[in-house]
Amino acid sequence: MAAGRSQAYVRGVTPTHSPATAADPGRSPTAPSGASSDTSGRSDAATAAVTRSAYRLRINGTEHELDLDNRASLLDVLRDRLDLTGSKKGCDHGQCGACTVLLDGRRANSCLVLAVAAQGREITTVEGLAGADGELHPVQQAFLDHDAYQCGYCTPGQICSAVAVLDEVANGWPSAVTRDPDAVELDRAEVRERMAGNICRCGAYANIVPAVLEAQRLTAGAAGGDGAVTR
Amino acid sequence: MTTLQDAPQQVAGVPRHRLEGGAKVSGAARYAAEYPLDGLVHAWPVLADIASGRITAVDEAAVTGMAGVLGVLWHGNAPRLQEPDTQMLNQLQDDVVHFRGEVVALVVATTPEQAREAAARLPVTFVARDHAVELREDDPDAYVPEEVNAGFPSVSEIGDPDGAFAASPVRFEATYATPGLHNNPMEMHATTAAYVDGLLTVYDSNQGGSGVQRSLAAALGLPPEHVRVVTEHIGGGFGSKGTARPNVVLAAMATMTHGVPVRLVLTRQHEFALVGYRTPTISTFRLGADRDGRLRSITHEVTVQTSRHEEFVEQAAVPTRHMYAAPDRRTRHHAVPLDVPIPSWMRAPGECPGMYALESAMDELAAELSLDPIELRIRNEPEVDPEEGTPFSSRHLVDCLRRGAELFGWDERAPRPRAMLDGRELVGLGVASSIYPAMVMPASASATATPDGRFRIAINATDIGTGGRTALAVLAAEVLGVGVDAVDLHIGHSDLPEAGVAGGSSGTSSWGWAVHKACRSLLDEIAGRGGRVDAPITVDASTADDIQARPELARFAFGAQFVEARVDVDTGEIRVPRILGVFAAGRIVNPITARSQFLGGMTMGLGMALMEHGEMDPAFGDYANHDLASYHVPVCADVRDMQAHWLDERDDDLNPMGTKGIGEIGIVGTAAAVTNAVFHATGIRVRSLPVLPEDMLLGTAR
Amino acid sequence: MREFAYGSAESVEQAVAMLDGDPDAMFLGGGTNLVDLMRLGVATPGRLVDISRLPATVEQNEDGALRIGAAVRNSDLAADPRVRRGYPVLSEALLAGASGQLRNLATSGGNLLQRTRCLYFQDVTKPCNKREPGSGCPAREGLHRDLAVLGHSEACIATHPSDMAVALTALDAHVVVTGPAGPGRIPMDEFHRLPGDDPTRDTVLRHGDLITAIELPAPSELSRNSGYRKARDRASFAFAIGSVATAITVVDGTVTDVRVVLGAVAHKPWRARVAEQAIIGGPASAHAFEAALDLELSAAQPFPDNAFKVPLVRNLAVGQLCRLAGVEMSVGSVGAGTDGAGR
């Protein structure tokens, strides 16, 4: 940018990048063309279409009737509409894992799932892991016992993720560090790799790894060693 | 008067799991954005697209017709604020843009989807000025401020450091750089605010509700008692939530304007501009030494950036004042004002980047002298504080180094770098020292005994994940001579007795002192009533005078980190299979949560060494890698064998509990220990963080 | 995020019909990139056609060829024993990508259609020729450490982020599509484009085209002796700073067939044909592989902050070829560098 010159910018209009040429200093602020023509024009067309849906979600064994904006993510529906605030928002882009829930028993980032697209799935959140009597899931208990958390914000996602990891291992799914894909066993290196999608900024990893291994031991005992870990 | 030594000791030091653990693992613990209020609506900030200039128009009419939109706040219509105590709170008051990403408007709408889309579409027109956003040591605008963060003088000088350097037989000089670093607590800054009958309640994600209450009340022109701040559970802060941030004042303005409860949750992207970050630093060291390694002269000149909007100068040269003996010495801070987001506290401000540089320089000096790096540090261990001349209340750095060497297997280390190859990996071992002040801040607490034999302890402390809540219960039980289960601890609410921030590693010492004193007084009160509690008895305590009465001493925690680094000879990828820290941090109240604090600090230090890097985009003026996919922090796979140990340190000159603070010292030396290990592995010395594969692939071994 | 209509397709035919004629509509698979981009304002569809419920099976023909349904999730594909044994490079590439929870969502078809992670493309407040044709490319003079060193253009220096696509290119896979213009079968190496002067298009697909399957030729000696190696800034859950998919067949010390595909260096998986030609028929040795890669990479045009990618992918490829060929590797290159003391 040339020294001493001013340049007009309008939000919503992508600025051009021409490093060799200075912007015209005399150019007066223009109307926000991006907002008035392109995007809002399309918005009118879109509002003519139906942009909300009525549907049911099955969460922790309970059916919920919803009628919502299609834009709502599963995470936001859980947190803002259903007061299931155990699932956390740490990035809203699938980059941290704090929102991890189980969809049909498999872990998934609920921030990237549109709620409307989760119809018909069996959704399990951290609130649905404990037994009916309130007894903690072995993974939850192991996290307590190993102090595998500090601020607790990533913890529900870590726990849901770990529950699924135990299932994945029981099902023989390999990971990037698996040496023999035909004999998958959970060890420290496997836990570290498999839990890598759940960021903990407090840095509880050194405690999370033994917690997950301990949970596997507990569940293997409880389930008679048949590998069934999800309640 | 009873002294600490007489107090029952059976509770403290016994491992105790977190009181709120069950709530955290079951998802029941509520954080700031998780309070369901009737009629709640959502606010979304609109950020400046320019780094410097003015707003010329905000076309609110373009979005007010959108479904769900309740209104747009901007400088033309926002409630007027009193002059706030920080520019972080000076929101929507004028048309000036101080940095890219500053809030220029706030959209309020019924749902978060509507608010976000309206914010994206709001037309705002700017006139941009040239901006300067890159930190340079030779910036002509650089100045030496009067004082730096935490009130330290900017400059200290003893003797003739330049002359002593010139006269030294061994002279070492090098410059080290650290990048902008972003706190990135997992819970983004968030506020749920409601204004009912003249009472403003904010459920806010911060590290100290009493301070936020004061700042917010002052900014809004409300009496403090009309502002209530709730901080029951906080999803990490690492300094970025130490004082009020834009989210809380914006949410308050929105709820006071619209008369309905408002929730505002910053996005991860917003965090990189709005809530503070660690400034980049450029440290130049000159070390003059005898041939046996004894330092004659230390000079540390550090250049940091500050925002033109608000001065914040990180005290990066301050730790150098207290570490090593040398008769002649100088430290000096230079600040460069730029059109950048306002820097602020991040875990161990000052110590963290400063000690990376000092401990790198010491490692380099040891290599030049062919001296073991631990031995070099031992030879320069001071008798008293090297600048103040005051005695240390306790200083066990050498013990940490020796104990760590033993636990880590330091004697297996080859004396020369680039001497250990294992398959396709070069292996190196590194060490660095750590220091962090043992601070204490005034606090007040109340203690109540009830006839059922239970005790209620109340203090507006904040547990941001440190284990502070549990530690206070343990301390109270210790003084009262009861089990922890008999104590009901109430924290995280501004109606409780006022206490300081969860920061400066001072929480347990500061709050604990107040709790300790209140419990002592309560026991005295009960004793005065013949030991009977027929009706609830409450006593209040404040520690302001006790802190004033302490003698002048140098009070610090010390530590040493040991690291094994492995560098892939084909890719230059660096992995760290082992980190071991030994700390001398006073009495450890709760070994379980203390260990977690040390481990967490070292994990963040690992990230600082090898991956964390806020990338300033010079053309646009923002930290461009503003998400967790491009701003890398360590993941589970990065942390392998990590151990925290501590010495059984007894220090009676701190506070009644003998605690020093543990939240920050874990990070302090870690980055240097990692990069020293990388040098030992490869012979490549990289003086700029983070050390990346390209430094290994393109660098030359020495 | 712009408001949009939502519909779920029960069949491929229905999916294509739902999109046909609506230039504002997009298919929604696992959503891991599309929802991400919609939230950023980069993608602004007015209608989503959910294809994640279409049949998701992996079928092996009588001749051994593998047909991977487009909706098959990355995690299922990586764990499939037929993939792990017959095409280890594919399983390894999938497992090197993203995280466990993302692989459960991400589909095979969607993985190929990921957009670049270039910081400028993802930030709608900045220029980007890929997102906004003609607005310019600030990456050339700005932040480009993660961007292309091969095949880039004046208009665009983006890289393609997929690990899976790199492996599929090494396996001579075909992408099976259907659309308004009828069915088609596209070789992987022709599926993604170089940016040229139209970086808005990542692939040769036209609006309304739907990926229905990915086909792999029957497992061979070559495909069984294959592997994927990825370098990244942390130990897991990061995009590649360089990667390589290789497969090699050696008979009596002579290379009879080879595939070398480089990832994270170009707008598409970079099939190193020059290197392959140089290697085939020659001895299986570190020296020969190094010479071949050097020849290939002599075409590289790196930028100041991504020049390291050239030695990085060279070393990755040479190391991986040596390992698969069972020959000794040469001395690594760390510390033999060029600039004195790092940055």
Automatic annotation (TrEMBL), chain A:
Entries under InterPro entries matching the protein: 2Fe-2S-bd (IPR002888), 2Fe-2S-bd_dom_sf (IPR036884), 2Fe-2S_ferredoxin-like_sf (IPR036010), 2Fe-2S_ferredoxin-type (IPR001041), 2Fe2S_fd_BS (IPR006058), Aldehyde_Oxdr_Iron-Sulfur (IPR052914), Beta-grasp_dom_sf (IPR012675)
Protein keywords: 2Fe-2S, Iron, Iron-sulfur, Metal-binding, Oxidoreductase
CDD domains in the record: fer2
Keyword Cytoplasm: no
Compositionally biased region (Polar residues): 30-42
Classification via Gene3D superfamilies: 3.10.20.30, [2Fe-2S]-binding domain
Pathway this chain belongs to: Alkaloid degradation; nicotine degradation
Superkingdom assignment: Bacteria
Domain (2Fe-2S ferredoxin-type) ranges: 53-129
Designated name of the protein: 2Fe-2S iron-sulfur cluster binding domain-containing protein
Originating organism: Nakamurella leprariae
Automatic annotation (TrEMBL), chain B:
Annotated Gene3D superfamilies: Aldehyde oxidase/xanthine dehydrogenase, a/b hammerhead, Aldehyde oxidase/xanthine dehydrogenase, molybdopterin binding domain
Keyword Oxidoreductase annotated: yes
Any GO molecular function: iron ion binding
Entry keyword annotation includes Heme: no
Record-linked SMART domains: Ald_Xan_dh_C
Domain Aldehyde oxidase/xanthine dehydrogenase a/b hammerhead: 26-130
Alphabetically ordered keywords of this record: Molybdenum, Oxidoreductase
Protein name listed in UniProt: Xanthine dehydrogenase family protein molybdopterin-binding subunit
Organism: Nakamurella leprariae
Automatic annotation (TrEMBL), chain C:
Keyword Transmembrane in annotation: no
Keywords associated with the record: Oxidoreductase
PROSITE patterns according to UniProt: FAD_PCMH (PS51387)
Top-level taxonomic group: Bacteria
Domain FAD-binding PCMH-type: 1-221
Keyword Chaperone: no
One annotated GO molecular function: FAD binding
Name of this protein: Xanthine dehydrogenase family protein subunit M
Organism of origin: Nakamurella leprariae
Lineage of the species this protein comes from: Bacteria, Bacillati, Actinomycetota, Actinomycetes, Nakamurellales
